[in-house]
Amino acid sequence: MTNGSHVKPWRTGVVSFIATLACAATLSAAGPGSQGKILAGFFEEWSIYYANYNIADLQNNGVAGRMSHIVYAFANVTADSSTPSSDTCAIADPWADFEDNNLPATGGIADVWPLYGNFAEILKLKQLHPHLRTLISIGGASATNTAAFSLAASTAAGRQALASSCINMFITGNVGSDWNGAITAPGLFDGIHIDWEFPAATDTQNFTLLLQEFRKQLNALGKANGKYYQLSFDGPAGEQNYSNIELAKTARLVDFITIDGYNYNGTWENVANHASPLFDSMKDPEFGEGLCISCTVNAYLAAGVPPSKYVMGVPLYGAGWTGIPNVKHGLYQTSTDTTEATWSAPALLANGSGQCTDLSGNTPGCDPLLTAGAATYSTLSTLTANGYSRYFDPVSVAAWLYDPTTETFWTFDDPFTAALKTVYVQTRVPGGLGGNFVWALKDDDANGTMVKTLATGLGR
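The chain above was modelled as a monomer; its predicted structure follows.
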C-alpha cells in the first residue's frame, strides 16, 4: 500500500476527523490497568538533579501503573583496542544510580542499606507493579559511547566481553561497590536496550553480531535460572542511519525496537517545521525526503521488521525558532535571524511566563532542559496562557504554537496528536504496530498527561 493511500483518510476534513477520534475511543475501551500494547518511557538518571524528577513521581502520579516498560538511561560503554577482553559496561553516575540516600521513597517503602539511589527506587516500583518491565539502556548519544560500541563490536572477544560485563552488572545485579564492599541489586533489570547512536556503514555486520552475542548470553542465563530476559535496541528515524542496520536480521534477535519518531526537523535549520509529523505534506518544502513517522514506518516494514516489534517514539519536548514571520502562523517560514544561536527560541521559564536568562542550572524556575530552542511538554503546555495560539495541521497530523508579537514558533506534541498517533499504531496494519515510547518521562506535566493519553489509546 502506498504512503498516499494511508494518508488519504486523514485528509478528508472534519467529519472523518471526528470519526477517527471515535475510533480512538473504541480502541481504548480496555481501559486503565489492562495489558495492551507496549508503552515504554525513558527515565534519565540525571532527572533527579535540576528537574527534581524522581522514580517516586511515577508512582505518585499514577503513570507507573499504566506503563509496560521503563527504560533507564544510560550505562556507558568502555573499550580498549589492545585488550578486547576488557570491553565493558560502566556506571555513568554512581551517585544517581545507587548512592543517593535522599531520594523520595517510592510508595513510602524504606531503603535497604547499602543500596540507594535510582536503582533502589526502581526495585520498589517493581514491587508495587509486578507487571512492569525494566530495561537498562546502554550507550546514548555521546561520541565516546558510539566509538566504544564500534570498537567493542569489531571483534568476537570484544562482543563477548561487553555482553558478559553488561549482563553481570545489570541483569545479575553486581552494580558496583563503595567503602563497605560490593553493592548488589538482583532483579533490578529485566533486559537490555542497546542505544548505539549510530552504527556506521562499516559497523553494519558487527551490530548484528553484537545483538546475537547479547541474545545468546541472555538466553543462557535465562535457561539457568528459569527466566526470560528481553533485548531491544534504538532504531533511528533517518534513512542515512537505519540504512546501516540489517533491519530484518536484527529484528529477529530482539523483542522490540524503539524507533525514533522525532527530530525530523529542528533548530539546526532555520525553517520552522514539524519535528514529529505523522505524515508527509505536499506543502512542506522538504516533501518527499522521508521526514515523517509514516515514512519511517513504511521503510522499516518494507525492510522486514515485523509490525509487532515497531515501537513508535513520541517526544515529550519541542523545538522552537524565533524571528519567524507571521505568515501561515509561522509554519514553513524562514527565520529572519542569521545563525542557529539567534534563530533558536530563547529558553523558557518553566511556567511559560518569560525567558530563562541563566542556563547554568543554578537558578530555579527554568524549563528543565535549560537549552535554547528546546522545551519540555510541561512548559509548552502553559504557553497558550502566555500569548501563544495553538494550531493544528490535519495533513501532517502535527501541532504547533505561535506568538506573532515575539515571532516565536514551537513545534510539539500534545494530548490530541498523541491520541491520534495511538490510532495509527492500532490501525496501521491488522493487529497494529507494537506500541509507543516516550522520551523522556521527566518532560511530561506533573499529572503525566501525555503518558496517560498514550496509555488510553493503546488500551492500557
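Residues 1-22, 24-34 have pLDDT under 50 and may be disordered.
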